[in-house]
Fold:
Amino acid sequence: MAVLASGVGTNLQALIDQVHGRDGVRIVAVASDNPEAQALERAAAAEIPTAVFGRQDFRGDRRARDRAMAGWLREQGAQLVVMAGYMQLVCEEFLDRFPDAVINIHPSLLPAFAGLDAVGQALAYGVKLFGVTVHYADPGADSGPVIMQRAVSLPDAREPADVVPHLQALEHQMLPEVVRLFARGAVRIASTHPRRVLVGPLAVLPER
Structure:
């Protein structure tokens, strides 16, 4: 597995603590678009190879950056790519290098509140139920097929600080769980429906 991260890297740390070196899972690389990302320090502390692919290093050419990043991840042996707080879209060429094996985590119950500041969007809308989605990445913004969702009722939430800790707790449970499922071959997209994801025992049963 490879992890992409742009910031603090708490989801990366959850993966290091819960699945790295266990259950047939090994984190072989961490890449970032941000040379100051704390996630890089977390990876280095765990002796995981790191690299930075800043868009500015490729004269603003996102496709060139994504091609270089995909090539490096392949060289490290990555089979699954986890976008864990990676604040960039990846292009189709990147996704094609890891078919049905790039996943993202987002702090909302998609398709609601896609994109940036999902918690702020949800608070502004006045929702009472917040949540987290793990989904396949596609070229759009948080628009790929849903793998797993979990929710938490927070009817009195008024500020991001009332919500974020609850969502982070969900994220730190869900992302390692989904990675373990991938390691067991228990996640796949249904051949009969491009947005239906079969998870767990259902993934090896007939789709009817």
